[in-house]
Design brief:
Layout: H1 22-25, H2 31-46, H3 59-69, H4 73-85, H5 89-102, H6 107-119, H7 123-134, H8 141-154, E1 164-175, E2 186-191, E3 194-199, E4 209-224, E5 228-241, E6 249-260, E7 265-277, E8 280-296, E9 304-316, E10 325-336, E11 341-352, E12 362-375, E13 378-394, E14 404-417, E15 424-436, E16 444-455
Antiparallel strand pairs: 1-4, 1-16, 2-3, 4-5, 5-6, 6-7, 7-8, 8-9, 9-10, 10-11, 11-12, 12-13, 13-14, 14-15, 15-16
Helix pairs in contact: 2-6, 2-8, 3-4, 4-5, 4-6, 5-6, 6-7, 7-8
């Protein structure tokens, strides 16, 4: 289990750049490197005539040309650099990330990307990228020496200002199965004298409708040392179902995480969250996890970071305490920034608090695979998730002759996002298909969403 965000945060240097806006002066981790990089790159940019290799440092002109040049790493690098200079770090991130995906060997983009990450307060990934650059033999010798000097100082220095980031979002969408009801209209009850056909009431069948959703996430580092950093995260969201208020869903969460400051170490985290449905508290859960973190250099992938460990969940259902459970399992997560791949595996066992819980203990497995790639001037993210659950004993004598429930769920998610000024519009599509040997637990959902996010 991990709190959303990046894994390790470095110590901030106290070096100062020449007079810049306040936001720029926060980006001190690679200031000298930045000046060296400018000296190396400026001549090449000035002699390039192509529209996608602009010579004029005009952000607005580059933004006007972006639709024609979104597949050019030269163009995206130049645009990201100018956005960094202007202190528009959140806008620079997507452009530079796309440039990295298009040309993973272009090390100056990695340096520019590290500057943008620090600009938005994400010193964690900035430090990881600087360490990767220090190990890259293609890096210019002058910058390599400066990298080593900065990284040595990071082991002793503390950040002067705590890293923080806040994201808000508003969206509208349509869900064709607001309550997650089974796709079947009829069931057969198992009785001593035989089977009894039962028709599911209209109120319990799939019902679609539009919704509005608001969300906010705030995270802040509150302690940093040469060994580890500590941060907290607060999150909340609410989905209003316009035509069917019982399907309203609210979420509140708060967590604390310890992460190593270097490339390897150990992490720990605690997260408490509540889910409300139809205005009433439906679930209360506390998660705790701990394990190791380390960087990996794989032959076909670069800048990968693996997290492995164990996790425990305690879950309560206030409306029906009979379903309360305690989960314990293992977690493996691998994220590769440059290639855009992320892999996650969970496996564990959920044991009931009440021995009379239908189905008894549950063996649970989750596998997810996602990738982010540049597309049409923005970013396209695809994700596949597989979930399996096997109950230890029969669920109910009235259903399928007291069969042990088996669930398999496939979820596909696709999201396209782009930048428009300081906002990030996005369009998302999610399709869920769950099958079970007990038809009562076989919903199918299609959800379409369009919205805006803002990060600062």
């Amino acid at each position: 289990m991990g709190i959303s965000g990046h894994n390790n945060k470095p110590a901030r240097l106290t070096e100062a750049l020449p007079a810049r806006p306040e936001k720029w002066r926060r980006v001190t981790a690679a200031g000298v490197l930045y000046i060296l990089q400018l000296a190396m790159l400026a001549p090449a940019q000035a002699t390039t005539p192509d529209i996608c290799r602009p010579a004029e440092p005009d952000i607005e002109k580059l933004l006007d040309s972006e639709a024609h040049c979104h597949k050019s790493p030269d163009f995206l690098h130049a645009l990201g650099h100018l956005l960094n200079v202007a202190g528009r770090y959140s806008e620079a991130l997507d452009r530079l990330e796309s440039a990295m995906l298009l040309d993973p060997q272009r090390w100056p983009v990695h340096l520019e990307y590290a500057l943008a990450l620090e600009g938005v307060g994400d010193n964690v990934s900035a430090n990881a990228l600087l360490r990767q650059l220090a190990e890259n033999p293609a890096v210019d010798p002058r910058i390599h020496e400066e990298l080593l000097r900065i990284l040595r100082r990071r082991q002793e220095a503390l950040w002067q200002q705590p890293a923080r980031r806040t994201q808000i979002g508003l969206s509208v969408g349509y869900d064709d199965n607001l309550l997650g009801a089974t796709r079947y209209a009829n069931l057969q009850l198992s009785l001593p004298g035989g089977y009894l056909p039962v028709e599911i009431a209209d109120a319990d069948r799939p019902r679609g409708g539009s919704f509005l959703r608001a969300e906010i996430t705030h995270e802040r580092e509150f302690h940093q040392s040469a060994v580890a950093s500590w941060r907290y995260v607060l999150m909340g969201s609410y989905r209003w179902s316009i035509e069917h208020s019982p399907a309203d869903i609210g979420h509140l969460g708060a967590g604390v995480e310890r992460a190593p400051s270097g490339d390897s170490g150990w992490y720990s985290s605690v997260l408490a969250q509540q889910i409300y449905r139809g205005g009433s508290l439906a679930l209360w859960q506390v998660q705790a996890g701990a394990g190791g973190v380390r960087s990996l250099q794989l032959p076909s992938l670069q800048n990968c970071r693996i997290r492995y460990g164990g996790e425990m969940h305690a879950t309560q259902y206030p409306a029906n305490r009979q379903f309360d459970g305690r989960y314990a399992g293992i977690l493996l997560n691998n994220t590769c920034v440059q290639s855009g791949w992320q892999f996650q595996l969970r496996a564990g066992r959920d044991v009931p608090v009440n021995d009379e819980r239908p189905g008894g203990a549950q063996q649970q497995y989750t596998l997810s695979l996602s990738r982010h790639v540049p597309f049409a001037g923005g970013g396209l993210r695809g994700e596949y998730e597989y979930y399996r659950q096997d109950d230890a004993k029969g669920y109910s004598s009235l259903l399928e002759d007291n069969a042990r429930r088996q669930i398999q769920r496939h979820t596909y998610r696709m999201e396209y996002r782009w930048l428009q000024g300081g906002l990030q519009p996005y369009v998302g599509l999610e399709w869920l298909d769950q099958k079970a040997n007990i038809p009562l637990f076989s919903p199918r959902n299609t959800i379409f969403t369009i919205g805006l996010r803002h990060l600062w």
